[in-house]
Amino acid sequence: MIVVGGEALVDLVPGSSVDDWGLPTLVPRLGGGPYNSALTMARLGAETSFLSRVSTDPFGTALLHRLRASGVTTSQVQRGDEPTTLSVVTLDEHGAAEYGFYVGDTADRLVTDPGELPGPPFALSLGTLGMVLEPGASSYEEVLRRECRRGVLTALDPNIRAELIPDPQAYRARFEQWLPHLRLLKLSVEDAAWLAATDESRVPEAVRWWLRAGVGSVVLTRGAHGLSAHTSEGEIASVTGRTVTVADTIGAGDTVQGALLAWLDRHAVTEPERLSAGQWHRALDFAAAAAAVTVSRQGAEPPRLHELTIE
């Protein structure tokens, strides 16, 4: 079982028409970084459970239905009558997404510590707003530390939303405290530069520091330019991105996180840092293939296992 913790929200995505003022219609799409990753894992064959607090409003009910339809277990989902978090999405001419969030007093940020996870699970994956918005962020931090002590494969995709982090220095300090509790850190080059308070040219230095601080392995994503895996041995493997017609980039990084953990689960790998270069290459290639399917579709719609031709 892989337990995924974090927010479930609704993205309001531009539709195909505009009003008299030139504003696009907005179409609701179910999402959230951890939510998308959970869908990916389950669709790719991994037994997956979602840990969050979800609203009892119609959006929240739809979020739960979609999880279950994809095979995600929802027994660890808490419910509340607070509203669902909303994200208004804007797309540039290349389909790249930017987000504006409405998170005041919403359900997912009020998740409470569930105590020791049953199992223990094979892996725990956390990230995005779940690690930012209090009081839920502190609950997820406690789960991370406790499950790491139990030997669970712990993974983080910080998926930085800088506009929701009022004190970047304080968040970076918290991030550094998580490093000894992480077996896998997956993040974009842009997020790595933000976390290290540096430019992208110096990200390799930051990755080496994070590994020395206790992270087992780091996977860096570079959008269409591919992704790479780094361990204490250095950059151990890399793959290029797939060439596809991009509908939008919503959920691309979330799909990478989900596909990586699904691959590790399928191959019973609890210590990714021990993978050979060849194994890492296959894992990254699987993740790149999954992300290519997602970006070819509107909204975060991860693939199912039968849609991929590699393992």
Question: What does this entry show, briefly?
Answer:
This protein has 311 residues and is α/β, with parallel strands linked by helices. The protein is built from eight helices and 13 strands. It is globular, with a radius of gyration of 18 Å.
Question: How would you describe what is shown here?
Answer:
The chain has one domain (2-305): UDP-N-acetylmuramoyl-L-alanine:D-glutamate ligase (3-Layer(aba) Sandwich), CATH 3.40.1190. The protein contains eight helices and 13 strands. The chain has helices spanning 33-43, 58-69, 136-149, 168-178, 189-196, 203-212, 252-266, 277-295, and strands spanning 2-5, 9-18, 24-31, 48-55, 77-80, 86-91, 97-102, 123-127, 153-157, 184-188, 217-221, 227-231, 234-239. Strand 9 (153-157), helix 4 and strand 10 form a beta-alpha-beta unit. The protein starts with a strand and ends in a 16-residue tail after the last helix.
List the SSEs and their pairings.
Blueprint: E1 2-5, E2 9-18, E3 24-31, H1 33-43, E4 48-55, H2 58-69, E5 77-80, E6 86-91, E7 97-102, E8 123-127, H3 136-149, E9 153-157, H4 168-178, E10 184-188, H5 189-196, H6 203-212, E11 217-221, E12 227-231, E13 234-239, H7 252-266, H8 277-295
Parallel strand pairs: 1-4, 1-8, 2-6, 4-5, 8-9, 9-10, 10-11
Antiparallel strand pairs: 2-3, 6-7, 11-12, 12-13
Helix pairs in contact: 1-7, 7-8
